[in-house]
Amino acid sequence: MATLYDNILQGVIADVAAREEVVPFKEIKRLSRNVAPARDALSVLQQPGCCVIAEIKRADPVTNLVSSIRDTAAFARLCEQSGACIIGCQTEERRFNGALEDVRTVKETVRAPVWCKSFIVDPYQVHEARYYGADLVALQVAALEQDRLVALLDRVHSLGMEAIVEVADEEEASRGIQAGARVIGVDARDMRSRTLDRKRFASIAPGLPTDVVKVALSGVTSPVDLMRYAGAGADAVVVGEALSRSASPDRLCRSLVAAGMHPACPTAR
């Protein structure tokens, strides 16, 4: 029986094929190499402290989130002004109500690096993300055979972008490192079981190389959550749903940024 995750991937593959019918791979590849260079997201993630990555998320089928965000430019500007070091856009269309055009809109609005948060399974999407202005992309180890993961990561780097290689267990983390990942994101949320386990990061992060940037992907709703992740070695956290649900996303973002830069934060020392 197909899971939600399986259905999302099937939809992504179908949508990519439809877009490639309109703009062939050769053309999107050409277009992707004729845009301004990517912003240096890796250097941003390597700065002292625990970086806050603000994700613009209109919907989430796992948590039944339906966001009130309509003006992505205004929301991105608010997050950057509140101290977020990277702005992410969930671009999957069918279940998350995302759009690649959001990446371009945000890129034209903020100075921070922009993350294309999607389900990338094909080289076409890497060039597509770069064309729309992405500086980072997401690569989920669970969705990719090892050869495809290596090839996609190499393509991402060749275009001057960075990838947050998303993992859910030690085996996937090992695969990500072997593929050449410089940034590993540990997802506390299981899309198949729809459960959240914040302890997952603490069980995986210590086994990662010291020079790899470590990102906690889910479960941050307060400065307390950020500090716990930082205490387990997180260099950055992704905050999406909490910002979308908050009545004062700027206040929440500022409080998280302050916690990530506080002297008591382990990664700020």
Detailed description of the structure:
The chain is α/β, with parallel strands linked by helices. It has one domain (4-33, 42-261): TIM Barrel. 43% of the residues lie in helices and 17% in strands. The chain has 12 helices and 12 strands. The protein has helices at residues 4-22, 25-32, 41-45, 72-81, 100-107, 123-131, 146-158, 170-179, 199-204, 223-231, 241-245, 249-261, and strands at residues 51-56, 59-60, 65-66, 86-90, 114-117, 136-140, 162-167, 183-186, 189-190, 195-196, 213-216, 236-239. It is globular, with a radius of gyration of 17 Å. The chain starts with a helix and ends in an 8-residue tail after the last helix.
Give the fraction of residues assigned to helices.
Answer: 40-55%
| Average pLDDT over all residues | 92
Mass-distribution shape: globular
Number of strands: 12
Low-confidence stretches: none
CATH architecture: Alpha-Beta Barrel
The first-to-last residue Cα distance is 48 Å
Rg, nearest Å: 17 Å
Q: Mind describing the biggest β-sheet?
A: 8 strands, parallel, barrel
Q: Structural class from helices and strands?
A: alpha/beta
| Overall tally of structural domains | 1
The arrangement of helices and strands along the chain is: HHHEEEHEHEHEHEHEEEHEHEHH
So, the CATH homologous superfamily?
A: Aldolase class I
CATH class: Alpha Beta
**Physical arrangement of strands within the biggest beta sheet:** 1-4-5-6-7-8-11-12
What percent of residues are in strands?
Answer: 15-25%
In DSSP terms (H or I, runs of 4 or more residues), the helix count works out at 12
Which fold name corresponds to the CATH topology? TIM Barrel
Catalytic activity: 1-(2-carboxyphenylamino)-1-deoxy-D-ribulose 5-phosphate + H(+) = (1S,2R)-1-C-(indol-3-yl)glycerol 3-phosphate + CO2 + H2O
Organism: Corynebacterium pyruviciproducens ATCC BAA-1742
Pathway: Amino-acid biosynthesis; L-tryptophan biosynthesis; L-tryptophan from chorismate: step 4/5
Protein name: indole-3-glycerol-phosphate synthase
